[in-house]
Amino acid sequence: MTNYRAPISDMTAALTVAGMDDIAALPGYEDASDDMVTAILEEAGKLAGGILAPLNAPGDRQGCSISEDGAVTTPDGFPAAYQQFVEGGWNGVPFDPDFGGQGLPLLLGTALFEMWQAANMSFGLCPMLTVGSIELLTHHGSKEQKATWLPKLISGEWTGTMNLTEPQAGSDLAAVRTKATPAPDLGQGIYRIQGGKIFITHGDHDMSANIVHMVLARLSDAPPGIKGISLFIVPKFLLNNAGEPGEHNDLRAVSLEHKLGIHASPTCVMAFGDKGGAIGYLVGEENRGIEYMFTMMNNARLAVGVQGVGIAERATQAAVDYARGRVQGPDPARKTKGAVSIIHMPDVRRMLMTMRALTQAARLITFQTAAELDRAKAHPDESTRATAESRAALLTPIAKAWSTEVGIQVANLGIQVHGGLGFIEETGAAQYLRDARIAAIYEGTNGIQAIDLVGRKLIRDKGAALSALLAEMRATQADLTQVLPDLGPPLGAALDDVEAARAWILENSDPVNMQSAATPFLNLIGLATGGWLLGKLALNAMAGTGGDPAHDTARLTVAGFFLRHLLPATGGHLAAIRAGAGDLMALDEDALTPV
Question: Catalytic residue at 443?
């Protein structure tokens, strides 16, 4: 079984394309020098490859367990590894120094997050939800709440969760029934929470001293639907006068879900208030919980996209290593007598090149999204901040959905490269596919991301944000045509397909046609965005910005493969969009199940 090696060279190249140098010049990010970034990536790679990755397969086999009183135990080695993670300060890299963070760019934090997910996705899910909790409280918590909760969440000493889903309320959060009752006897802004939640990642575990649950609940007099939901901080342990975990709150994990993958990540069914009510602290104003939770969810959507990249990278490394060592069949080039390793076979090379090209494209998209969020946060010019915020909003559903589909596709190809051994658990290839599969579902299914992209990010502004992005893409196409003439035309053809798809959707924007076009449009724009960014990567390689001729040559080859072999698929997605909704909706419900 292959261990994980952090792809620092490819990450550094992707950081350059995303504008790391420009980000490091923004106010507050001056410490992110080239030397600092390199040192952080190298040290993170040691933790990921040396500590987290070796726990991945054993953790998958052992899984988590739960006691009768709801205490969850994670696999052997996980608590100790998490303490190393905390002691190294890794959780606080992109957060406010006023609360113990290091104040470095989210772009750098995203590169680190990819390492955690690639090395051990089950482990990486714990800090992922903590990061979302930090973002939520940073934007919406009171001064007192920030002072109370942020330092320990940023350090990682305490972890966070997101409690949205209920058995009857999956993506439709308007159906949330968990209730909150004011508790004036306990103080202003304090409530008793009663209800149940499902699918709660790391809802209980033994890795941190406290778990800070972010819980959606409804007051008895709240308006119906999504507008009547509030958000509460509900800690596992209430804090004593010294601000340390004390009495156990009235909540517990009832059971653990039995899942296809991520076995070392406890996915809990949670019960709140079995003994009268769990103590919860209102965040912000009543009935604005969905608005606040979307801050956490948007952060998590980018993070989930990075999970797709991480799994794809891990699967690619494993497949390449296997293909190097698996000797079978004659040399198709007739350069060598006797059997050669399968990495010499054109069809295996097609799979490996597809895996590598898709992985790098998805990495570039997620890094670019993080860079726009850094600009939106820190750029001194208000207009530039607004433009970056709009660009980040456009890219986020692409980063989440397209990158997680890449994770599944690449992990699936990894099994195929391994052949029959890929279907055997001992090689590890199957785990990557099992783990990757959830990422297309949670934090809003990929279908929901596609509808968001088309409904909110395209139709709502009549394509203005996309037009601005296309203008930059066209500029890259022009540069490619000048420097690498064979790469300009395929990018140009893909951009033509994007423009044609945009025009069709804006002309056919009724709900049925819009939703039928959403997924093929997301697939189309994901390919085009990946092609654009790989084109920029190729231009940097031609200029020798990577400092390593061998790596620059490899990047040129990967970019050329993507643009010539994979990018033409945009035409198929355009055809699907133009086909409309007729075929999708033609059969009645009974006819969908043949008898």
Answer: yes
